[in-house]
Structure formats: structure tokens, C-alpha cells
Design brief:
The protein is an alpha/beta fold. The chain contains eleven helices and eight strands.
């Protein structure tokens, strides 16, 4: 079953997020994906995640297609203007990519090349106007295309530690339907109250909600995230569980597995964010019985 059918069906859909290489050597990327082939519904290929310079997702996505792994290609607006954004979408379609997640992209100042200037040309609405036009067989200027796209479209929605900001974001989910958006991927959180807020907003909109579950590696990581302004905190119960555990990394996977079980009734699926633990994803999927 393909990703678009799975996300419209009754079962909990699981994606694994994988970063393209920082360079041109593809072996590690391919090896990580092949270890989980058939155990997740699809693989989400990132695009400059955390403002770190990496290969764009076009070539990696094509390489997955050639290996019978379905990619969901993430495309950010931070690094593009509307011309290059439309051009990359057309290239993706020509290469066989049918699923895309549109995201704004993190501020370049947090990345590995903070002197970068973002184009500032694209917000989420403009990106959705672009992809809607391409699916209708036109470019954003209304000029006819030589063949149209038919993307299965999702959006990435950033979360905040401010409940009012989250509420404002959640209220916009209903507007996504006019752009034929099929699913929304929330930023990472272990706060079920935030998920409930978005689940209630997404109900009866036709937009499927996917959580993002980040692997917790250490006590220091949780404390760092909880001191990071603007992002949702990790609930204290998970910090206590990690502190008490003799093997921290094992505890981190157990926390993620338990959390996924808790949110199955709240979301249509989840995206696993391994954060460098690609080699441990098979072990984690064993925990989930997948």
C-alpha cells in the first residue's frame, strides 16, 4: 500500500525521517534506508534540516524510488524564491516523486553557515499557491505547463512553547483544504496536550495529522531542549524516567515507543526523527512490533 492510500486508511502510518548526506557519498544513506525497507510506510527525505547544508532531497528521493522505497520529499521555502521552488517541484515530479511536504525551513542563523541570507520570497501560503497551480497544469503566473503534476501534498507546522501561538497555528488547519493539502506534520513534541489541541482543530477538515517523535538520547539532551526558547518542553515524567534508567539510550527508545502507543488515538500517524540514530531504527521498530 502506498503512502497516499495508507494515510487515508484506518491504520496508524509510520514514516522515518532520513537526512541526505553532507557530501556526495550515498552509501550510508542507502544502507540506513534499506535496513528499514518494508517496515515503515515511507521515508521522509529532509531538505536542509536545522539549516545544515546537505545535498538537496531530489537525488536521494530518486535513488529510493529505484530501490522500491517510497519517498516523501520535504521542500523548504527558506532557500528558494518562487521560480526555483516551482522548478524543483517540476524536477521532482519528472523524477517520479509524488509525495511532498512543504515547510518554511528553520532560521539559517541556527545552522552551520549562519551568514546565509534567506530569500524571503516564500511563505507557506505562497508555496501552496505554487504547488496548487502546478497540479492544475499552470505555473504561478498562469502560464500553461507542458504536462501537469499531481502531488500528494502535506505541510510542516512548527510548534511553540507558547500555547497561544500553537492555538493560532492550529486554527489555520481548516484553511489548508482549499489547497488540497492531505496531511500536516507537526514539529517534535512529547506533550499530548499540544497534540490534542491540533487533533481537535484537524477533526472533520479532511487533513490527516502526523506527529513527529524525536529520539531522546540523554538527560543532557532533554535539559537542553527544555532550556531552548520557543520549542515545546519535554514533560518532567520523561526526564525522571531517563534519569532513573541505567542505560539512557535504551530508555530513550522505550520512551518514544510508549509515546507512540499513547498517541495512536490522537493522530493518523507519526514521523520518526532519529537524529543520527539511523542504524538503531531497526531495533526501535522491533520494539514497535513492525
Amino acid at each position: 500500500m502506498g503512502f497516499s492510500e495508507a494515510i487515508a486508511g484506518p491504520e496508524f502510518t509510520l514514516l522515518a525521517e532520513v537526512d541526505p548526506p553532507k557530501g556526495v557519498a550515498m552509501a550510508e544513506f542507502i544502507d540506513d534506508v534499506m535496513r528499514i525497507k518494508g517496515r515503515v510506510t515511507a521515508v521522509a527525505v529532509t531538505d536542509g534540516a536545522n539549516a545544515i547544508m546537505r545535498m538537496t532531497p531530489l537525488a536521494p528521493s530518486r535513488m529510493l524510488i529505484e530501490r522500491n522505497v517510497e519517498p516523501v520529499m520535504i521542500l523548504n521555502g527558506r532557500d528558494r524564491n518562487r521560480l526555483s521552488f516551482q522548478g524543483d517541484l517540476l524536477a521532482a515530479w519528472a523524477l517520479g516523486v509524488t509525495n511532498v511536504i512543504i515547510e518554511q525551513g528553520q532560521d539559517a542563523k541556527v545552522g552551520d553557515q549562519p551568514m546565509v541570507r534567506s530569500s524571503g520570497d516564500l511563505n507557506l501560503e505562497t508555496m501552496l499557491q505554487c504547488i496548487t497551480a502546478l497540479n492544475d497544469g499552470k505555473d504561478l503566473a498562469g502560464e500553461a505547463l507542458q504536462g501537469k503534476t499531481n502531488f500528494h501534498v502535506g505541510v510542516a507546522l512548527e510548534l511553540s512553547d507558547d500555547i497561544n501561538a500553537n492555538r493560532n497555528t492550529a486554527q489555520k488547519i481548516g484553511n489548508l483544504k482549499e489547497y488540497s493539502v492531505k496531511f500536516a506534520v507537526l514539529g517534535p513534541t512529547y506533550d499530548v496536550n499540544i497534540l490534542d489541541l491540533f487533533a481537535n482543530a484537524a477533526e472533520n477538515t479532511g487533513v490527516s495529522l502526523l506527529a513527529s517523535v524525536m529520539m531522546l538520547k540523554s538527560v543532557a539532551m532533554i535539559r537542553y531542549l527544555n532550556n531552548l526558547p520557543g520549542v515545546p518542553s519535554i514533560p518532567h515524567e520523561f526526564l525522571k524516567q531517563m534519569i532513573a534508567a541505567p542505560v539512557k539510550q535504551q530508555a530513550g527508545m522505550e520512551i518514544a515507543a510508549g509515546f507512540l502507543e499513547d498517541i495512536e488515538a490522537r493522530c493518523k500517524g507519526a514521523v520518526l526523527i532519529a537524529l543520527g540514530w539511523g542504524t538503531r531504527l531497526p531495533e526501535f521498530l522491533d520494539m514497535l512490533g513492525r
